[in-house]
Amino acid sequence: MSKTKNSKFHIKLPLFIAMGLAAGILIGATMAGNESPKNNSLISSIHKFSNIVSYIQRDYVDEVDTEDLVETAIAKMLEKLDPHSVYIAAKDLELSKSQLEGKFYGIGIEFNILRDTLYVVAPLSGGPSEKLGIRSGDKIVEVDGENVASTGISNRDVINILRGEKGTKVSVKIYRKNAPELLAFDIIRDKIPQNSVDVSYMVDDEIGYLKVSRFSATTYQEFYEAMKSLKEQGMTKLILDLQGNPGGYMDRAVNMVDEILKDGDMIVYTKGKEKRYNVQYVAKRKGMFEEGKVIVLLDEGSASASEIVSGAIQDNDRGLVIGRRSFGKGLVQMPIPLNDGSELRLTISRYYTPSGRSIQKPYDKEHMEDYYMDRINRYEHGEFFHADSIKMNDSLKYETAHGRIVYGGGGIMPDYFVPLDTTMHSNYFTKLFYSNALREYTIKYYEKNQNKLKSMDYQDFKTNFEVSDAMLKDLVKTAKELDVAYNEEEFEISKPLIKLRIKAQLARSVWDNEGFFPIFNETNEVFQQALKIMEDDQAWSKL
User: Fold this and answer.
1) Which are the contacts of 408, defined by CB distance < 8 A and separation ≥ 6?
2) Of 380 and 420, more confident
3) How many Cβ atoms from other residues are within 10 Å of residue 157's Cβ?
4) Annotated catalytic, 361?
5) Which of 59, 199, 312, 418 sits at 20 to 30 Å (Cα–Cα) from 326?
6) Of all residues in the chain, what percent carry a pLDDT higher than 70?
7) Within 246-304, where are the H helices?
């Protein structure tokens, strides 16, 4: 936040807030007939805080930003509660909400910043940019008359300049290979849906695959439409991929799992200090997939609403969970809008799976950094590779509907553990990925060969297209230009994975996620294990 001189209003604002809070507490206490020591202590603390801010503003030797002081104090205060109670400043709230509300207004492109240059990875289908003919591989070099090439532009900068109000105009100039001059476009911003169902497709004549990346405002409707389409294509078995899904809106997760569980089955329940936050959610409608095998894919990045879905399916013995132990977020936040446009997301309850287990992993309020480092610690302790590295607490043992043992105390433990496959990974591959060399090379290849690629049938591409040695040499050359030194030994280790990633990225350029994921999943060890278990009668006899 930039430092600004405070007006008299800004100087007094914290005092107004404090007095308003104190007045509200006094009125509440009076109405309840209970001026308890707790209430008196709280009022005294609020007065103390407002006095300190007032003294700093009036008497401190240097000018200060009162608003910044207050926001810092709020953030520090919430750090003493739990890992998920947060304060979101007004300036950050719109972006935060847009990530969950499933839509925003902009020009409709997937972008990437490569070598300080803003590339169009793909125009979003039906969006303003696609309608005007903006293409994959285009480089945006100017926005509203301002140069954006080689200026150190960040992802947040791009969002700030390209998003805006519906119907507003943004003028861009684009460099396109073989075009005689920069191309100018006036783009009218429009609603850009953010799909949370990344892809759905039939793996074979019976198995449908559906990947959900987060639980946003539109997730349930997207899920319903995808399931409807899969059933029309003959789906009788479902693989629901929640790997890396960080959660989102709980009610969307509840509605989703209601389509899979039978009427009356418990989905999840919550408990808080206040009884009004104690709520039970049960399946209450005739679901569209109450019969048929269900497998849920999880990993260490699956959290919150993802754990509600997987916990409900596991505890009701409706299906199998495959992968690695999930994140372990069992705290429920309530969004509370504040008068300056900011928002408090306050933890008001814990949620419990049908068997009664809380899946919130432990945290120490005095050492909160350990909580955020948990995934790294799991990796270092070998949990991603060996199931016996996971220490489950026998005092937190619960039973599913049919008597299978499950554990609380930290995430959903899958029914079938799948270790992280690192056999084809190397430092060289990691550098190719994080330097954007892989992405930059595939963009260049697509630019040169898009007519040929677009003329191909997808199944023909998936079956017959081969990444040649010449293509790999060009990738290595591109990587060197990005200061990624060639390592022959590591390249040979990762060669099959590199070839598959190039092929998958090229498929995405032509056929979007419907092209990318069937190829990518060929090296998704959790998905591959799910295909084997789907046909294993002994595995299903346990339910």
Assistant:
1) 353, 356, 357, 358, 359, 393, 396, 398
2) 420
3) 15
4) no
5) 199
6) 90
7) 250-258
Q: How far apart are CA 407 and CA 413, in angstroms?
A: 7
Q: Tokens in use for 126?
A: 């039906």
Q: Annotated catalytic residue: which of 50, 129, 304, 426?
A: 304
Instruction: Give the residue ranges of DSSP H helices in 348-487.
Output: 368-372, 374-380, 427-434, 437-454, 458-464, 469-481
Please indicate whether residue 304 is annotated as part of the active site.
yes
What dihedral angle (degrees, nearest 10) is formed by the CA atoms of 157, 161, 164, 169? Answer: -170
Cα–Cα dist 309/288, whole Å = 16
What pLDDT is stored for residue 125 in this prediction? 67
pLDDT in tens, 383-405: 888 877 676 666 689 999 999 99
Angstrom distance (rounded) from CA 17 to CA 258:
43
- pLDDT at position 123 is 80
Phi-psi region of 247 (alpha: psi -120 to 50; beta: other; left: phi over 0): left
Q: Give, in order, the Cα–Cα distances in Å from 121 to each of 19, 130, 139, 188, 491.
A: 52, 12, 9, 20, 26
Instruction: Spot the catalytic one: 315, 435, 503, 509.
Output: 315
Pairing of strands 117-123, 103-106: unpaired
User: What number of other Cβ atoms are within 10 A of residue 434's Cβ?
Assistant: 10
| Closest alpha carbon to 498 in 459, 467, 526 | 467
329 a catalytic residue = yes
Q: Give whole-number Cα distances, 478 to 163, 245, 262, 401, 432, in Å.
A: 31, 32, 54, 55, 9
Using the 8-state DSSP alphabet, how is residue 248 labeled?
B
Query: Other C-beta atoms within 10 Å of 63: how many?
Result: 11
Q: Are 217 and 193 in contact (CB under 8 A)?
A: no
- CB of 479 closer than 8 Å to CB of 502: no
User: Among 180-194, 212-226, 510-524, whose mean pLDDT is lowest?
Assistant: 180-194
Residue 400 φ/ψ region, left for φ over 0, alpha for ψ in the -120 to 50 degree band, beta for the rest: beta
Residue type, 516: F
Q: Which residue in the list 139, 293, 329, 361 is annotated as catalytic?
A: 329
Which residues are 119's β-sheet partners?
A: 112, 139
